[in-house]
Write a structure and sequence with these properties.
Helix content is about 30%, strand content about 25%. By secondary structure, it is α+β, with helices and mostly antiparallel strands. The chain has a 6-stranded mixed β-sheet with strand order 1-2-6-3-7-19, sandwiched between helices. It has a 4-stranded antiparallel β-sheet with strand order 13-15-9-16, covered by helices on one side. The radius of gyration is 23 Å and the shape is elongated.
């Protein structure tokens, strides 16, 4: 493809509305695009099945060597306040070398770049001595409960079992992310007994033991002092508290939500175990009825920065972008947390076009950088399989 065709491909993706889901729209577009280049792709349903949500999965190669996978999510976040946009969020408008639209950086430019790299290599009759996979996932941005259903489905159904190396095309500001934090999302619920506020002794205030739990949890969070050289410390946040209804009634229900960004030195399992112990203690001490509900459990992912795969990405990236590409760890998690869950030795690099406009009004991507990344992805494939 020439530069204009590459840009048109991205524009077509941005004009497809996958805000909050509806990934089938992109999956079908990709399936047709791959078929036009004689590459068969599949639409894989997520488990549990949801209308309008399919993974796009394709592979090329003879299977006689290692397996490299490209992965990116097909959904995007909500538009937000439309009044703060100066461009059409689904318009793919181009101004001063930037293409605007929801998902331009996060992450339809990465998705398009990886797809085009595979299509162009096919047109060039490049022979993959192994397997090159493309995985367009669902539910990375747009699920309130245990997100990343697409990546979960791929891992649980064995599609990741033979992957040796993985590139996530998330926007990385032109650098390579070799380490990402994991995350835990949970809520603690408290059940009480409703009563009139004039006779509180006839009920049980659900808020009271939840406050006691909150204070005990804060003490535990303060002891999370373990440090990872690349990821820093564990980061806990109480993100929401809700309880009660009538202002003249004893509340019979209350809940709080917690999001924790995790590191390998303090495992998700150990944190959840301790949280449950705190809940058990409050239930005993206050004759309360607190319960733990785990809404998400994503493991941290870390590849050795000196691994030959990361070194290769850095060398090719630096040459392609004509500047020094740095290596870094980040606090956010990616689909890699689920894709590597049953095969933690997969080498992972997060490397994609994009900038800090993600999730903001007038999200955009630099088209020159986007174009360079397509060539970078092609060079990575050729070097990896050689």
């Amino acid at each position: 493809m020439d530069k204009q065709a590459r840009q048109d491909f991205l524009a077509d993706l941005l004009k497809i509305d996958t805000i909050g889901g509806h990934e089938d729209r992109v999956a079908m577009f990709l399936k047709q695009a791959f078929a036009a280049h004689q590459i068969k792709g599949e639409l894989l349903p997520v488990v549990p099945a949801e209308d309008g949500r399919h993974i796009f999965y394709a592979k090329v190669g003879n299977g006689n060597g290692p397996t490299l996978a490209f992965s990116g999510h097909q959904d995007v976040v909500s538009i937000g306040d439309i009044g703060k946009w100066t461009t059409d969020p689904l318009g793919a408008e181009v101004k001063d070398g930037l293409m605007y639209g929801r998902g331009a950086s996060d992450m339809k430019s990465g998705l398009a770049g990886m797809a085009i790299a595979i299509l162009e290599l096919a047109d060039e009759h490049y022979s993959v001595n192994g397997e090159l996979l493309f995985m367009g996932t669902v539910g990375e941005e747009s699920s309130t409960k245990n997100h990343m259903q697409g990546a979960q489905t791929l891992a649980k159904q064995g599609y990741t079992d033979h992957i040796d190396a993985l590139i996530i095309g998330e926007p990385s500001n032109g650098d390579i992310v070799f380490a990402t934090k994991g995350s835990i999302l949970y809520k603690v619920t408290s059940k009480g007994i409703a009563a009139h506020s004039s006779t509180p002794e006839a009920g049980y205030n659900a808020i009271a033991p939840l406050i006691a739990y909150y204070n005990e949890q804060a003490k535990y969070f303060a002891k999370m002092t373990q440090i990872d050289a690349d990821l820093g410390t564990t980061t806990p946040v109480v993100s929401k508290i809700d309880g009660g209804g009538q202002l003249n009634s004893v509340p019979d229900y209350a809940e709080l939500y917690v999001k924790i960004r995790t590191i390998p030195a303090l495992t998700n399992q150990s944190i959840l175990k301790h949280v449950q112990q705190l809940i058990n203690k409050i239930n005993r001490d206050y004759q309360a009825s607190l319960s733990l509900v785990v809404l998400g459990d994503k493991l941290p992912v870390k590849t050795d920065a000196n691994d030959t795969f990361i070194e290769m990405l850095q060398q090719i990236g630096s040459a392609g972008l004509q500047r020094e590409v740095k290596l870094k760890g980040i606090s956010a998690d990616t689909d890699a947390s689920e894709l590597t869950k049953f095969k933690p030795d997969i080498k992972v690099g997060v490397f994609g076009p994009g900038n800090n406009s993600i999730h903001k009004p007038d999200e955009n991507v630099d088209l020159n950088q986007y174009d360079k990344f397509i060539d970078i992805y092609k060079q990575i494939v050729k070097h990896y399989f050689n």
